[in-house]
Structure to design on (99 residues):
């Protein structure tokens, strides 16, 4: 269990953080219990992304290459993608992905 809060640091709640690597795993973990909430970057002021039983960190579901992210001119990404990763995709994957 981990103590987690949003940007506003209130409330701070103990929760189990899980980081699914596939969408199927995220769906299964969501369906398994009540009080499950998805979490992106945790930067919302008041809308703290904390599940009372389980919090699903979405970061592993983000694209690992520009080809993953782009199709038909549209960007496909999940919550927790950061602006530096968007710039990395825009650079065609040159250099390191950001947060
Ligand atoms: C310094 C600062 C400046 C900001 N400036 C702006 C601004 O200019 N404009 C603006 O609009 N906002 C601004 N915000 C607010 C912030 O960007 C938003 O609240 C945004 O939602 C934060 O994204 P996050 O990924 O950190 O969300 P989180 O805090 O992780 O989650 C926010 C909510 O989204 C839900 N959620 C997360 N992922 C998923 C998912 N995959 N599926 C379903 N629900 C999900 C969570 O459960 C929670 O309810 C600012 C925040 C800060 C700290």
């Amino acid at each position: 269990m981990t103590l987690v809060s949003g940007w506003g640091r209130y409330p701070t709640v103990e929760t189990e953080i899980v980081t699914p690597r596939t969408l199927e795993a995220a769906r299964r973990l969501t369906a398994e219990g009540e009080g499950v909430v998805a979490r992106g970057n945790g930067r919302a002021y008041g809308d703290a992304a904390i599940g009372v039983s389980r919090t699903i960190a979405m970061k592993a579901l983000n694209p690992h290459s520009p080809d993953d992210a782009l199709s038909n001119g549209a960007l496909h990404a999940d919550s927790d993608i950061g602006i530096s990763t968007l710039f990395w995709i825009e650079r065609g994957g040159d250099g390191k992905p950001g947060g």
The pocket of flavin-adenine dinucleotide is lined by residues 6-7, 37-44, 47, 49, 58, 78-80 (CB under 6 Å). The domain at 2-61 is CATH 3.30.43 (Uridine Diphospho-n-acetylenolpyruvylglucosamine Reductase; domain 2).
